[in-house]
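Q: Structure tokens for this one, please.
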Amino acid sequence: MKSKLGRLLLAAFFLAAMSAYAQDVATDTGKAAKDVGHDTKVAADKTGHETKKIAKDTGHDTKVAADKTAHATDKAADKTGHETKKVAKKTGHDLKKGTEDVGHDVKKGAEKTGDALK
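A: Here is the predicted structure, written as tokens:
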């Protein structure tokens, strides 16, 4: 009988120890899962924040570049318009001068022709 009681007590002890160990493992697993979940959430929040920050910076840089491009284009257009006006004015002047010279030469030719016919 002592032997059966001893075996029964020994089995109960092992079962209690295994049960306690199993609960400890389950608790550790639950804690680890919560910690991983928390760490994942923190990492996701940081990633989201950094992504938003980079997008904001990129948007600002794009706006600055667009403003600079628009200013440079406007300046180039003004300069081109000014140069076109100068060339047109010079061309008009040269055309007028050429026309006056031709007219003067035609007049001289006509006078010579008239003198020759006299």
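A few notes: Residues 23 and 29 are 10 Å apart (CA to CA). Helices lie at 2-117.
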